Amino acid sequence: xxxxxxxxxxxxxxxxxxxxxxxxxxxxxxxMLTTVHVIGRYAFNYPVKGLVEMSGLxxxxxxxLAGAYTVITRGHVTVTLLLxxxxxxxxxxxxxVTYSLCLIFTALAAWQTFRRSIWLSQVGQTTEILGIPxxxxxxxxxxxxxxxxxxxxxxxxxxxxxxxxxGETG
Length: 170
Hints:
The chain is mainly alpha-helical. The chain has 4 helices and no strands. Helix 1 packs antiparallel against helix 2.
């Protein structure tokens, strides 16, 4: 059994899928809140208090939870107009460099997000209108950056294995 077929990888993918669907549920809640806000504001002159704050925090949750799953399913946008013109070996090198740069970026983002969450906890940062504590959202974002990094590592391993199977490395 290869690493890519292991129980650990399958469990990781399952976790990312659950997170993705939780993000979709949060998105539905966000849409419903916005709908209630618009109806309340224009029909009854009674908008939802703090909706801009809630929408910002909910959007952070949606994007964070969907990121790693998007990497695993290769659901991100790729532009291959130029890449397809190169020979397979050059494409492999470009893909490795791209994945490596993404890994560096996500690892740095995780580190800085956790640093920022510690600072926000120390100063007791909350939203202005509703007073919602901000640090838990930053901690969630940091965890999602770590999972994003792990998903990129898994993609690098998958890509490396498929390159070897195709004979594009050497």
